[in-house]
Amino acid sequence: MAIRTRNKISTxxxxxxxxxxxxxxxxxxxxxxxxVSPNAIKLMxxxxxxxxxxxxxxxxYIDSNFNYFVEENPVNQEFLVExxxxxxxxxxxxxxxLRADQSVPVQYVVTLIxxxxxxxxxxxxxxxxxxxxxxxx
Length: 137
Hints:
137 residues, alpha/beta, 32% helix, rod-shaped
């Protein structure tokens, strides 16, 4: 008399639990990758391939020591509004060209833009700021 086992061992492998695990991992990585901030990119600005020509009324320089120069004359940050306002007096729609060193933080550029916007508020004009860049090599 032969003894037979009732429980047969199946040689087939079920992939259902494996696919569930893969989808859970996929969802986890998709969610966590959106939380990572992209602050690790180092940019070497400014350089541009665009060629915008505009009538240059006033040129403002910001050097690597974060000093402001209006038409090559040193100006303190507190007197930017008065100096730019006097240079743009009598003009309604002029351009202020900003030539900033590429190591200058954005806050110094924003300070100049705020000064030009303040001149616009005080005089009712529409002056704009143009960032000068070097051509891409």
